[in-house]
Amino acid sequence: MKRHVLPVSALRGVALLSLFLSLAACTARTADDDGDGGARGNAAGGMPGTRPPLPLDPYSDQHDGLFHKTRLADDRLVRACMKQRGVPWNPPPVSRADADPPSRRYGVTEGADAQKSGYHPPVDPARERRNRYFLHELTARQKAALDGDKRHPGCRARATAAIHRGVPKKQTFLVFQLEAEALKKSARTPGVRAAKKAWSDCMRERGHHYPTPEAAALNKKWDLDSPRISGRERAVALADAACKQKTSLVRTWSRAEADVQRQLIRRYATELAAARQANETRRANVDRILTDDHGQP
User: Fold this and answer.
1) 87 neighbors 143 (Cβ within 8 angstroms)
2) How confident is the model at residue 12 (pLDDT cuts 50, 70, 90)?
3) How far apart are the C-alpha atoms of 188 and 71, rounded to whole Å?
4) If we measure between CA atoms, which residue out of 74, 64, 86, 143 comes closest to residue 297?
5) What are the backbone dihedrals phi and psi of residue 148, each rounded to the nearest 5 degrees, phi first?
6) Which of 92, 200, 236, 287 lies in the 20 to 30 Å Cα band around 134?
7) 226 belongs to a structural domain
8) Residue 6 within any structural domain of the chain
9) Owning domain of residue 40
10) What's the number of domains the chain is made of?
11) What is the spatial distance between Cα 98 and Cα 44, in angstroms, rounded to a whole number?
12) pLDDT tens-digit profile of 266-297?
């Protein structure tokens, strides 16, 4: 029987489970990746706290800092290209936070994070500065050189082509789709449902009435598009993190998700082997770019 990877359109409901799974994780990066990011940056990278390792991690572009190195290579190529075209170009450096793996896969899990940011994506100043540059400070001449046109590829397209040389396009979303599917399926297991029920009871004891952590984080009273974080949002987030620890929700969920991921790894062994090879090809491209004296592909 022919297998099909879950289409992206079918994963919309997963957003209710993984609050800030970017996602990006493979493509939903910051503004300078595709010119369509929010000023507050990527919510997936640079998070406080950690999450347990999962079986699909070695197949992800977050493994061994590949995503961060890719960003550095892209920056190096674009700078060289803009210099070659005689266009002024001096964006802030790529954020070191891009080297950190996502950690809010199960929502807010640590008190310090909850106290500082509530349910808002934590702000990384370096990423903020870089995003502001790409969103608000580019001149028309810089945008033209960066974007190019149908006949003359821009510096962004040239950099992307060099980084992904030899990498099949169909591999781009595979691991993200499987991670999202594992998160969704594991949330329906009896153990995780019981842990969420215990979490809800714990929250109720603290005066907060939410059936699930997702419902608490997606409360419309928290205006996540605004930089303002209310005291109420912080209080609920603090209780959320405390109840996750008390009920061992993250440990229960991550174990259930690991079981599902192992099943998916067996089912998609061929596809995942190709995804890992694609990452290694990209890593070789990136290493070559970063060690080239002239920053050229």
Assistant:
1) no
2) very low
3) 36
4) 74
5) 65, -160
6) 287
7) yes
8) no
9) 17-49+60-291
10) 1
11) 9
12) 999 999 999 999 999 999 999 999 998 655 54
Kindly state whether residue 12 falls inside one of the protein's structural domains. Answer: no
Contact 277, 217 (CB under 8 A): no
DSSP secondary structure of 129-192: HHHHHHHHS--HHHHHHHHB-SSSB-HHHHHHHHHTTT--GGGTTHHHHHHHHHHHHHHTSHHH
Of 207, 179, 182, 203, whose CA–CA distance to 192 is shortest?
182
The SS3 of residue 4 is: coil
For 209-252, how does the pLDDT look when each residue is reduced to its tens digit (9 = 90+)?
Answer: 999 999 999 999 999 999 999 999 999 999 999 999 999 999 99
Backbone angles phi, psi at 228, to 5 degrees: -75, 130
Q: Rounded to whole angstroms, how far apart are CA atoms 209 and 34? A: 39
Hey, what's the torsion of the CAs at 132, 133, 136, 141, to 10 degrees?
-170
